[in-house]
Amino acid sequence: MATKHVTHSVPVVFSATLASFVAMTPQSATCAEMSHEHHHHHQMADAPYQASVHEYALPDVTLIRDDGAEVRLPAEIDDGRPVVLNFIYTSCTAICPMLSQTFAGFQQKLGDDVGGVHMISISIDPDYDTPERLAAYAERYGAGEQWTYYTGTPEASIAVQKAFQAYYVDKMNHRPVAFLRRGPGEPWVRLDGFASPDDLVREYRQLVDAG
Q1: How far apart are CA 58 and CA 56, in angstroms?
Q2: 14 versus 1: which is more confidently predicted?
Q3: Each residue of 76-126: pLDDT tens digit?
Q4: How far apart are CA 15 and CA 199, in angstroms?
């Protein structure tokens, strides 16, 4: 549910590590479209990402962290730190590597401030994404202690996706989106599209500084 909705468009400035992927991809592309519609790459040159503000109700579901611990989602997220969240699955070869590279660049660019944020990646393919697979995936992207991955039952994963209005039925139809929140009980900033690490840092700092 989104009771507050404010949008702005920001031109995307991509990092070199993402350019080869993103240059091929329409802003609204799903995984399936990325696999079959690379000939549309010219549409991406000046496409924006969309930032909007929403209020989402977190479902009280149990997820399994990449270290094997079972946690209740609201308590895990509401730990007092700002949150940056996305949805991924480890066998994805199109959108997810780009989203994960963006998170990796974000954590690097935050430098000494990185410990003050909770970065969260939730699997949309929990049947395949065991905690062990998520831990290996986290290592691949150099995830620090502040960046945790979660799996669980399909029902729990779907409930979280629906709560964030990011459920597209088939994992191949999922779209590039990230979510930021300054603190417990506050609205979420939703970024639809391929925000670069610099974009994500800028949105994050603007959000935190607004407090």
Answers
A1: 6
A2: 1
A3: 999 999 999 999 999 999 899 999 999 999 999 999 999 999 999 999 999
A4: 10
DSSP annotation string for 103-146? HHHHHHHHGGGGGGSEEEEEES-TTT--HHHHHHHHHHTT--TT
CA atoms within 13 A on the CB side of 204: 25
In the chain, where are the structural domains located?
7-209
Distances (CA, A) of 161 to 27, 72, 109, 145, 171: 20, 15, 28, 24, 11
Token pair listed for 85: 């969240």
- How do 83-88 and 118-123 pair as beta strands? parallel
- Phi, psi angles (nearest 5°) of residue 10: -130, 130
Task: Summarize pLDDT for 25-37 with one digit per residue, the tens.
Answer: 444 556 555 543 3
Identify the helix (H) or strand (E) that includes residue 84: strand 83-88
Count CB neighbours of 67 within 10 A. 12
> CATH top-level class for 7-209?
alpha beta
Cβ 156 vs Cβ 63: under 8 Å: yes
Q: In whole angstroms, what is the distance from residue 137 CA to residue 139 CA?
A: 5
Q: Indicate if the pLDDT at residue 4 is higher than 50.
A: no
